[in-house]
Amino acid sequence: MQITFPKPNNSALATLLTFFSPIAGLYLSIRYNRQKWAKNIFWVWCAFMGLVFIYDPGGGSRADSIRVAAQFVEFHNSEITVDMLLKSFYAYDEVTGRDRFDLYFPVINFFVSRFTGNPRWIFFFYALIFGFFYSRNIWYIIENIKRKPTWSIIIVLFAFATTSSIWNIGGPRIWTAVQVFLFGLLPYISHGDKSKLIWCYLSILFHFSFLVFAALLTLYFLLPRPVSVYFIFYLIAQTISELNMELINSLLKSVGFSVFDAKIDEYANEDYLLQRQDSISKYSVYYFFQSSLFKYPILVFNMITYYFLVRVKNLDKKIQNMFCFVLYFSAFALIFEHIPSGGRFIALSNMLALSTFIRCWYDLNNRNFNRLLSFFSGFMIIYCITRMRLFAGCFGFDLFYQNFISVFFVENNSPIYPY
Predict the structure, then answer these.
(1) Is the Cα dihedral 350, 352, 353, 359 positive or negative?
(2) CA distance readout (Å), 199 to 177, 336, 408
(3) How far, in Å, CA of 75 to CA of 277, rounded?
(4) Alpha carbon 288 to chain centroid distance?
């Protein structure tokens, strides 16, 4: 007998169903993605994933989520006053030997820890906040697809959704900042809508390193938009990113971001490169596919997109401006790849590129472009598999049958596929 879900007539009914069966809510949000309530139901699903998130998979894991949970418990067990909280926003970091600015992490930890010491709740709130921006970013793309998507577009959209996904709440600051930045940026680069640009600057409150790209966004407002110039700049940056690490070290320091000097010394040197290569070799082939194999298809398809855009006459200026920003942002992301959390900036630039490919698909409506995009989506399938591998290491099978009530009576620390 085939099980079918009736189409809910309103968001209240869909929310109620999701409360008792979150996995059914996920199905409804995808199946009826054009409904106004769909993105909110997906948001509820994200919050539920925070409740069942396995923050300590055991086995000697060094996941960031273990440290996040430990710091939350420390907050709960400490008598932290509001004055102490304010002072913690800008404090000395014993690891780096430099002052560190942090707002999002201590504020959320402080308020949630006043009510509970259970780490499950802090990841629920991290997922709730992350999920709001995450769901809006995905649905912004969905709502702007004006014709029936092909399988290649669905795959590219899935790659976009999994590049920075809900299982990244183990590192809540940087990945939430990525979603917040995108939330303000996508309407601007897609349709010239500046109403949400303030969120690009507010992303600094989630992770201080986003000050760099907030500054780059401001600079972009003042620059002309010749697509060929940005394309050449992008190719130069791609070359620089492959150069000697010590040269990159000097280049980054010469830019003037002295606040990152300590981390640049730590990350942008030959010893770190060898250490990272050794680390990668200890893991499965999945990690190779999600980094190197993704980088070069993006490069090639940016070249293809450039070729088609410069050949089209009377092209909408908005799509050209969107591609200009992607090239501009990606170029700097490649250069800054070796500063702290630089790999996350590459993820952000890749998400911008993927959203642009989708936009070009329905704006150009070119048969040759669509064929090449279908070929490109084959690489995205491999990439998506590697991302789902990360998903399988952060959640157990209970994700598929538990709900917002039963989750408090049954605890599972066994991931679907341990790291």
Answers:
(1) positive
(2) 10, 22, 34
(3) 36
(4) 19
pLDDT for the residue numbered 414:
84
Q: Are 302 and 350 spatial neighbours (Cβ–Cβ below 8 Å)?
A: no
Cβ neighbours for 203, distance < 8 A, ≥ 6 positions apart: 177, 178, 180, 181, 184, 210, 214
Tell me the C-alpha to C-alpha distance, in Å, between residue 381 and each of 158, 357, 386: 9, 16, 9
> What amino acid is encoded at 236 in this protein?
I
User: H-helix or E-strand containing 372?
Assistant: helix 367-392
pLDDT of residue 292: 62
Tell me which residue of 280, 273, 333, 277 sits closest to 302, measured CA to CA.
333
Per-10-residue mean pLDDT of the chain, 419 residues long, equals 52 87 94 92 95 78 80 83 70 51 82 89 95 97 89 94 92 92 94 92 90 92 90 90 61 53 49 47 51 77 89 79 93 78 79 92 86 88 88 90 90 80
The number of C-alpha atoms within 13 Å of 71 and in the hemisphere containing its C-beta is 16
